[in-house]
Design brief:
Blueprint (H helix, E strand, L loop, with lengths): L8 H13 L5 H13 L3 H17 L3 H16 L5 H25 L5 H21 L3 H16 L5 H13 L5 H11 L6 H12 L5 H4 L1 H13 L2 H6 L1 H8 L4 H11 L16 H22 L1
Helix pairs in contact: 1-2, 1-3, 2-3, 2-4, 3-5, 4-5, 4-6, 5-7, 6-8, 7-8, 8-10, 9-12
């Protein structure tokens, strides 16, 4: 929900207040409104928004709504847009939402249709990125990852959502490469219905196709699954494969083909790939940025 903010300031604040007090405003839309009010430095709307957000969060049990409210709050906290008192309240609220979202995940992932499962997967990925952004306390992080593990272990979890949960746990280092390969091998085994196997495959690899370039175990599990498909099933799943690998650029696709053909370049002896390497680089760059800027200024 976007509200154009133009002078006079009082009118803008009243527009925000209207959105904040509207009973039909969802929790995630409310979080976005609070983010906008704080960014625009509308103190009255910010204060009212925090109260409304806390009240709405206490009543909300909808997992998708809870997860969608995490990113805007994380942005406020991470980039210091709020006053110190607001940040403290927001941090407590965000931690509560993360924990509640983790608890609600296992039930929310059950028996979903294609549209609902895609929506939940999108919310899970965005929430996970936001959680990594704010680096919450370990107990909060554990609650979130326990929720992901519960989805993965749930017998009624929709395959697409379970695959996404497995991927997020793998990226966080809570699922080793060996364990992930074994899991994928089981989930893609010939005894698994093709549609379920395809859903799990898409959930795991739709944003992680590049993992197949270097991880021989994962690649072997996927290769075995593809070989087990009959011609009709293989052709039927070509659009799925196209979607998954569309995230790879031309160079990555070439390297994946070379890996499949056995021509992949291995990492130097003594080095191993890490699932969360991108996150590690982001943290390194955050530390290096000020140093580099300082060096340029002195030069």
């Amino acid at each position: 929900m976007t509200i154009p903010c133009r002078p006079p300031r009082g009118s803008c604040s009243r527009l925000f207040l209207f959105g904040l007090t509207e009973p039909r405003t969802s929790l995630d839309a409310l979080a976005a409104l609070v983010q906008g009010a704080i960014t625009a430095n509308l103190s009255e709307a910010s204060t009212a928004g925090l109260v409304a957000l806390e009240e709405r969060a206490a009543r909300s049990s909808e997992c998708l709504e809870i997860l969608a409210s995490v990113p805007p709050l994380a942005v406020i906290i991470r980039y210091g847009e709020a006053r110190k008192t607001e940040t403290a309240r927001l941090s407590g609220l965000l931690e509560r939402l993360i924990i509640e979202g983790g608890i609600a995940l296992a039930y929310a992932a059950r028996d979903l249709d294609a549209q609902a499962s895609a929506a939940l997967v999108g919310a899970m990925r965005k929430a996970d990125e936001a959680i990594k952004l704010v680096e919450p306390e370990q107990d909060v992080l554990d609650a979130w990852r326990n929720g992901l593990a519960a989805v993965l272990d749930g017998s009624r979890s929709t395959a697409l959502v379970a695959g996404c949960a497995a991927h997020l746990l793998y990226e966080a280092g809570h699922l080793s490469a060996e364990a992930a390969a074994g899991l994928i091998e089981r989930r893609l085994s010939p005894g698994t219905p093709v549609t379920e196997a395809a859903g799990f495959f898409e959930g795991f690899f739709s944003t992680a196709g590049q993992r197949l370039i270097y991880d021989e175990s994962l690649r072997g599990a996927v290769d075995a699954w593809l070989k087990s498909l009959d011609e009709d099933a293989f052709i039927a799943h070509l659009p799925l494969l196209r979607r998954v690998f569309s995230h790879l650029d031309s160079m990555e696709r070439r390297r994946l083909i070379e890996a499949v053909l056995g021509r992949v370049r291995r990492l130097p002896v003594g080095l191993t790939s890490t699932p969360n390497g991108d996150e590690a680089w982001r943290r390194h760059l955050e530390r290096l940025g000020p140093l580099l800027m300082s060096g340029n200024g002195n030069g």
